[in-house]
Design a protein that fits this description.
Its cofactor is Mn(2+). This is 2-isopropylmalate synthase. Belongs to the alpha-IPM synthase/homocitrate synthase family. LeuA type 1 subfamily. The protein is of the alpha/beta class. It has helices spanning about 25-40, 50-65, 80-90, 105-110, 115-130, 150-160, 175-190, 210-220, 240-250, 265-275, 300-305, 335-345, 350-365, 375-385, 430-440, 485-500; strands spanning about 5-10, 40-45, 70-75, 95-100, 135-140, 165-170, 200-205, 225, 390-400, 410-415, 420-425, 445-455, 465-470, 475-480. Strands 1-2-3-4-5-6-7-8 form an 8-stranded parallel β-barrel, surrounded by 8 helices. It has a 3-stranded antiparallel β-sheet with strand order 9-10-11. It has a 3-stranded antiparallel β-sheet with strand order 12-13-14. Helix 8 (about 210-220) links the parallel strand 7 (about 200-205) and strand 8 (about 225). The protein folds into 3 domains: about 5-275, Aldolase class I (TIM Barrel), CATH 3.20.20.70; about 320-385; about 390-500, Double Stranded RNA Binding Domain. It is built from 16 helices and 14 strands. Helices cover about 40% and strands about 20% of the residues. The longest helix is centred in the first third of the chain and has 18 residues, at about 115-130. The structure holds acetyl coenzyme *A (ACO) and 3-methyl-2-oxobutanoic acid.
Length: about 525
């Protein structure tokens, strides 16, 4: 049995199925490049038949990624498989992942097919996918609630038809670790041609057991785990990549295999996904939460100072947190700035992008005593968005907020380079600012979500604001960071409006134009 555990990342497909987490094509490419740096083996980039946008995103990821295999999802239908193959054509290594449900309830109530018909669809789909690539994965959806005898039958048939990976999904997060591990062991023992395929698992977190179930499966013999950054995914999410990878690595005394992941890229990748999707990472989240390596109580601090291993089972640096805290300030130069960002896994495409980020860093350093890694990451992800084709830019903001008075905001926005100013009152300083921006841009968008997170601690911490806007059924997220949360809010609002404008004809926004 192989000692390599294949990491199949599905942040861009199942992760995107988290309500509100949809990503643009360019955002998917940025995440895919980060996943490639993380050295994931397979990137599931989307479900090409789902929409023209999903097709283009899979195609763009297939063009951009050279090291990891790029995968597209397809139902057991000819049209889905042909569409996936078309989207994956530019890939250096392409995988088609086809699936059909095998549980009695799904076959009877959803597919309305007899078990024999399900087997026939599965075999036909795998054969068709093999016409396009040698790398074909098959999943019996809802395997966690399927009959083991039927699973054995369909898995033997798809392996004989050419499936090179068979993936056992616990689609509704129903399994328990001992039972799921036993199921994998049973299937691998009973399917006669089991050794012709890699065995994989895909677990959902409805009972908070996705990682535990995945690890139980690996101990039983599975050699691929499907997972997502920060555990994103449909409903309660999928197994978190960072937890699976670090559990296997930390407990090498129990696992007979290891991954090829560059673990130092885990935290930068987690932060990128959080900032693009607008789903912040909870501070107590394992591995990637802000408190994962923080020690608060005296007895723990005393122990760690004497010997780090008394209270730490992993090294913060090994997953991408920095060990040295105060590194950069307003007297630092470009080389220190570039070097620190390189240590965080961030590279600039051009000198212009570096200069743009450096200018923002200097502005921030003037306002803030200490610049933490999290500040830098927020600043760079903001720069990456800003250097795109932005049509609106915040030029000026003044807010007047006084006890007993209605807050008032005056805002100047450059619209395609032309500055416009407006003043508005609101229920609070943020509301007043948004109203002032609206009276300039007249976007007609609906605000679905507004959230503020403190990126670091202290009263001079940067606030990171996420807003979610909807227009004509299209939902976008915007982010902004600043030590002043009203400015961060205005930046995030304008960032979201820029995303709505992206790809639209370049006329000057007037009332209702955005
Ligand atoms: C467990 C998972 O996460 S699977 C992935 C889930 N992700 C998604 O569904 C996101 C993308 N989906 C979509 O955009 C749409 O559902 C589409 C484009 C795939 C299909 O859209 P529509 O054609 O309008 O069908 P709709 O979504 O209403 O229903 C699904 C149909 O696919 C059938 N179906 C579902 N799974 C499969 C399968 N694996 N193989 C074959 N047929 C299937 C259903 O029985 C149903 O058929 P019916 O229309 O004959 O009743
Ligand atoms: C397509 C399959 C693997 C899936 O996402 C699930 O069953 O949850």
């Amino acid at each position: 049995m192989s000692d390599r555990l294949i990491i199949f990342d599905t942040t861009l497909r199942d992760g995107e199925q988290s309500p509100g987490a949809s990503m643009t094509r360019d955002e998917k490419v940025r995440i895919a490049k980060a996943l490639e740096r993380l050295r994931v083996d397979v990137i599931e980039a989307g479900f090409p038949i789902a929409s023209p946008g999903d097709f283009e995103a899979v195609q763009a990821v297939a063009e951009a990624v050279r090291e990891s295999t790029v995968c597209g999802l397809a139902r057991a239908k000819d049209a889905d498989i042909d569409r996936a193959a078309e989207a994956l054509r530019p890939a250096a290594r392409a995988r088609i992942h086809t699936f059909i449900a095998t549980s009695p309830i799904h076959m009877r109530e959803k597919l309305r097919l007899e078990p024999d018909e399900v087997v026939a669809h599965a075999v036909r789909a795998v054969r068709r996918a093999r016409r396009y690539t040698d790398d074909v994965e098959f999943s019996p959806e809802d395997a966690g609630r399927s009959e083991p005898d039927f699973l054995c039958r369909i898995l033997e048939a798809v392996i004989a038809a050419g499936a090179t990976t068979v993936n056992i999904p616990d689609t509704v997060g129903y399994a328990l670790p001992d039972q799921f591990g036993a199921l994998i062991a049973e299937l691998m023992a009973r399917v006669p041609n089991a050794d012709k395929a890699v065995w994989s698992v895909h677990c959902h977190n409805d009972l908070g057991l996705a990682v535990a179930n995945s690890l139980a499966a690996v101990l039983a013999g599975a050699r691929q785990v499907e997972c997502t950054i920060n555990g994103l995914g449909e409903r309660a999410g999928n197994a978190a990549l960072e937890e699976v990878v670090m559990a296997v690595r930390t407990r090498q005394d129990r696992f007979p295999c290891d991954t090829g992941i560059d673990t130092r890229q885990i935290v930068p990748c987690s932060r990128l996904v959080a900032s693009i999707t607008g789903f912040p990472v909870q501070p107590n989240k394992a591995v990637v939460g802000a408190n994962a390596f923080a020690h608060e109580s005296g007895i723990h601090q005393d122990g760690v100072l004497k010997k780090r291993e008394t209270y730490e089972i992993m090294r913060a640096e090994d997953v991408g947190w920095s060990a040295n805290r105060i590194v950069l300030g307003k007297h630092s130069g470009r080389n220190a700035f570039r070097t620190r960002l390189r240590e965080l896994g961030i590279e600039f495409d051009s000198e212009e992008a570096l200069n743009e980020a450096f200018a923002r860093f200097k502005e921030l350093a003037d306002k803030k005593h200490e610049i933490y890694d999290e500040d830098l990451q927020a600043l760079v992800s903001e720069t990456a968005v800003v250097t795109g084709q932005e049509r609106l830019r915040l030029v000026y903001l003044r807010v007047c907020s006084e006890t007993g008075e209605t807050p008032e905001a005056t805002v100047t926005v450059a619209v395609d380079g032309e500055e416009r100013t407006a003043t508005a009152r609101g229920d609070g300083p943020v509301d007043a600012s948004f109203r002032a921006i609206e009276s300039i841009v007249a976007s007609g968008t609906e605000l679905l979500l507004y959230s503020v997170n403190s990126i670091t601690t202290g009263t001079d911490a940067q606030g990171e604001v996420t807003v979610r806007l909807r227009k004509n059924g299209r939902v976008v997220n915007g982010q902004g960071a600043d030590t002043d949360i009203v400015i961060a809010s205005a930046k995030s609002y304008i960032n979201a409006l820029n995303r709505i404008l992206q790809g639209e004809p370049k006329t000057h926004p007037q009332a209702g134009d955005v």
